[in-house]
Amino acid sequence: MRYYIQLAYLLFLSFFITACNAQDKVTAMMPEKPLEISLNMTAQELYDANPEYQAFQEADAQPMGVTFQGYDFPTNNMGKVIFHYSDDSFNIDQVVTILAMDKVTSEQRGLNKITIDFFLDKTDSGISDQDAYKKMMAFFKELQDKDWTYAKSLSEPRLSPKDSFIFATKKGGSDFNLDYTYPLNFEQWMQLSDLQVWQLRHGTNVFMNIRINRQSDPETGSRHYLISLDIFDESELIKQIIPRACLQFILQ
Q1: pLDDT for res 12
Q2: Within 10 Å of residue 8's Cβ, how many Cβ atoms?
Q3: pLDDT of residue 127
């Protein structure tokens, strides 16, 4: 776990540097209309649905005919997103990046995994732990009201929502089995490590991992909460749990 926390902190600092560089690169006004996104739309459909955000588009070509598609917002001009799924949606503010992988050679390939990164704080001055707690609990409550459930995998221990918190905070336990439906109070929230992963699903075809990265600026002491939503469909889930060699054999 310590390795993952250190890695997350390095990624957190790298993310800050990237976001600051973006401030010099992007001077466009932020559209009033939120950016709209959903799983399995193609990259072209994503861009066509949000022409107001053209100035913020990013595409980073990678080897093997893959490119990262999405948007990049500076921290002084963060975006707003509506994520659509099934017959419902949720809104996210203070968005700094939207990232999805797409095959360059297949324009019609849908985006079956999308990552949305956002801050809980609106400015570089940070946010208090108490306010961050209230915002995350309100988001959890919204998701629960919209029928998102804990995505318990077959390999995970069979724990009640309360026991998942006890397991996460005991020596030798794990933060990767937290059930978000358990109503944490503020003191319990602060007992969790600075890197948390919450696994959710909606129905049987939409999955979401919520990563919460809680850090303090070493120079100012300000608290920052970077939240990453990895949203993916069942085909991406299968790729995650089945070794690539086995998957290739199944698909043959």
Answers
A1: 46
A2: 21
A3: 94
Quick one: three-class SS letters along 82-113? EEEECCEEEEEEEEEEEEEEEECCCCCCCCCE
117: three-class secondary structure by DSSP: strand
Q: Supply the pTM of this predicted model.
A: 0.81
- Written as one letter, the residue type at 149 is T
Instruction: Give the distance between the most distant pair of CA atoms in the chain.
Output: 56
Residue 206 phi, psi (nearest 5): -130, 125
Amino acid 105: pLDDT: 52
Could you report how far apart the first and last alpha carbons of the chain are, in Å? 37
Task: Say if residues 173 and 190 touch (Cβ distance below 8 Å).
Answer: no
In whole angstroms, give the CA distance from residue 208 to residue 36. 17
Residue 239: domain span: 2-251
Number of domains in the chain: 1
For the chain, which ranges sit under pLDDT 50?
1-26, 244-245, 247-252
- Sequence-distant (≥ 6) Cβ neighbours of residue 154 within 8 angstroms: none
